[in-house]
Design goal:
Fructose-1,6-Bisphosphatase, Chain A, domain 1; five-stranded mixed beta sheet; magnesium; binds calcium ion; binds adenosine-2'-monophosphate; about 280 residues; 14 strands
Amino acid sequence: MKEEKLPSVVGSKSFTAVAINCAAKAGEWVKTKLGTTLQLNQKVSASDLVTEIDKGSERLIRNLISTHFPQHSFLGEEGVEPGADASTQAIASAKDAEYLWIVDPIDGTTNFVHGFPFFCVSIALAYKGEVIVGVIYDPSSDELFVAEKGKGAYVHGKRLEISKEMKLQESLIATGFPPDQSYALPLNLRAIARLAPQVRNIRSGGSAALHMAYVAAGRLTGFFEYNLNSWDLAAGSLIIQEAGGKVTDIEGHSYHLEVRDVVASNGHIHQELLQELGRV
Ligand code: 2AM
Ligand code: CA
């Protein structure tokens, strides 16, 4: 009898277990490099940084994923040319893959470089364009946020729940400043000028993925940011939805992998937030 060829997959670990393992390993390694002398490279400007640690973290994750799932596709920030056009193109051509891993090896690189402890590793797995696993690991606080489609979102085994605020007035809202200064910056400044007098307060921590995890955990009421990439948002979008929150584009359409201008919230204040941002 002809011997059946086995697929070259090591063990039979679940997608989620592999995602957690990758995020934890990469995050721990990244943390050991905090405060060491970094070789800094600018992407398109002095506010768009990449280090050899971003690249090493992505290599580690990519190798581990391909050991377990060699047939799966992989989209990582460091494998794509800098700039919005290349990122838009990259997700457009990758999104139809059967299984696609979407990875930000360090979200919050500027914070990492400055030793500001608010950065993370973000890993999502999409099946036919829909995120089914999302993991965000913050090595500074040792918090691992994880969600599986239909099974809820958790941190350290505790179920995540969005916050209870019902009005913008009582909301803590985060935003971010991606490095592009022609599209995102003027929009963002107008949005902040409009929102600041109407919310409890505004925060800007410097990691879109961690802001998303914080919305899921009820620590932020909402988050918006312009011109983000798929790897900043994919894992967080599932974690928020599984925690009971809402993620859309700036016009209120449901989240999908190509969204760049994002609005995320506990759901209760979503319409109010969209409305104000629509007037910017
Ligand atoms: P990063 O650290 O992975 O680069 C800060 O507002 C957020 O913007 C961070 O999540 C940061 O992610 C992201 N960001 C940085 N450079 C970007 C770029 N060129 N395009 C889009 N988002 C970017
Ligand atoms: Ca990054």
